[in-house]
Each structure stands twice: as structure tokens, then as C-alpha cells.
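User: Sequence in, structure out. Go.
Assistant: Echoing your sequence, followed by the C-alpha cells.
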Amino acid sequence: MRSCTLLAVGLGLALLAGPGAAQQKVSKKVPPVLQFTVNDIDGKSVDLARYQGKVLLIVNVASECGYTPQYKGLQALHDKYAKEGLAVLGFPCNDFGAQEPGSEADIKKFCTTNYKVAFDMFAKVKIDGAAPSALFKYLTSKETNPKHGGPVRWNFEKFLIARDGTVAARFLSDVEPESDAVISAIRKELDKK
């Protein structure tokens, strides 16, 4: 009888704790920059919180721009630093010179065929104008990003996001991904554990 009572008490405690209670983990607070959901290049919904704890290089990209060859440098950064925690995120945008006119399928084919892009690519976004993407609105706002805010001027601007979710640096279009300035900033953030 005593073993039945102990079993019933044990079952009752398990039921009170709820299903999966033993597997429940306390997660760190997700930084504001990662509280967005976007679509990837294949149209699947992606919660940016999945990048929590990584160093991010967020870039607005275009296939028909004078800076398009920077895809090679972005891929090189991905190849060199992904294992250390860098994630390069490409966001195609047609707002600047109409230099990204194709569909997501066209963009994906172009990037993989010409530059062997393996870093994460997303659906086309609006950055300029009345209805910018929520992510880029956050990145460019002087309220949420006082140090590095301001409008995006052209394709291939780069936002470096630290592991804690702060915007650590911003690089204009003419700054090559493999420049000393970009690599030094990435290295500084990766070295922070």
C-alpha cells in the first residue's frame, strides 16, 4: 500500500510539473535585434533568435551592382569564421538603383552559380521608403542604434552585430568584406566569449 501511495504522489508531482518539465531550460533574454522573424530565400519563416550568441554580419545585397563581387569576400568570411561563431546574413534589396530585380529563385541561382554562396540568404526586403523591413528599420534607427544608425545609402552596407546583440560596427558599401577594418572588427567580437 505504501509503495502505491509513493507512486501516486510521484505521478502527482510529475503531473503538477507539466509535460516536458525535466527538459525545460531557462534561456537568456533575446536581444531586440534578434526579435524579428523573416523569410529565407526559399520562403521559409526564420526566427532570428536562432542566431543568439553568434556574431552576425548583416548585409543588404544586390546581383547587378558594382559591389556585387563582394559576395566572394562575404563567402570567404563565412568559410573562415563560421566555425568560430560568425553568421553572414544576406538580404537582397531592389531599393538602390533597382539592382536586384529578380525573384528569390533567380537570386539564389545567381549567388550559388557565380559565387558559391553558402551563407544564409533571405527573401528580398524593403529598406528605403515608407515601409522598410522591421529589421532594417531597427538597424537604421537613431533611437535603437544611436552610434551606427542612419539611412542605408546603397547596396552592400554591412552591420556587425556582437554576440550580445548590440550593433558593434557598420561599414559602407565601398568597404570590402575582407578589408582589415572588417576583419579586425569581426575578430574583436569573436574573441569575446
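User: And one key feature?
Assistant: The two ends are 54 Å apart (CA to CA).
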